[in-house]
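Escalated from tier 1: guanosine-5'-diphosphate holo job.
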Amino acid sequence: MAVQDFTTKLILIGDGRVGKTSLCSHLCTQRIPGKYELTVGLNIEVHQTYLKGTSVKLVLWDLAGQQRFGCVRPGFYYGARVALIVFDLQNRGSFFDVKHWIRELRRHSSKTPFILVGNKTDLHKREVTKEEATRLAQEFSVPYFETSALHGDNVEELFQMATRMALQGTAVAY
Ligand SMILES: Nc1nc2c(ncn2[C@@H]2O[C@H](COP(=O)(O)OP(=O)(O)O)[C@@H](O)[C@H]2O)c(=O)[nH]1
Ligand SMILES: [Mg+2]
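Tier 2 regenerated the structure:
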């Protein structure tokens, strides 16, 4: 029996310096050919993973720096099967901006499910509590993960959940 190989698109959004690129880098430590950078500052990385024995290529789209760069946005959002909305646990402003990113996601890709991610758990000067972030996630009925891209805490688990959400509705058993 032929083994099916799924390819699925994941996007990372959120304010600058919250750790989007670091989360990708942590996951894709074994870099494979196919990673490239466009001059507009778009990083695309491919992570090979498995879900229930099925091989899945997770294509990670990470807008570097130009989050508000209008002309690249429609292409960036197009076809995304899941989004990570990332904020920095020690930067309250980045948590306030999460609602902006949800609106932006809904405007360009109304059906794309997302995960809320509070990054930098290794730093102890928190400006956002777990309770309020969980409340925000509940408001939108989405999962909430806390990660450290620096130490790798919860990163694998986060992308496993993202893969499951991206493949919901496909032939891969959920
Ligand atoms: N302590 C700590 N620093 C982090 C973590 N993730 C990212 N950083 C740092 O935060 C800064 C911005 O990270 P980057 O991944 O470039 O953020 P991006 O702009 O959202 O892509 C860099 O100096 C990273 O080293 C983390 O989990 N813990
Ligand atoms: Mg970046």
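The first strand starts at residue 5 and ends at 13.
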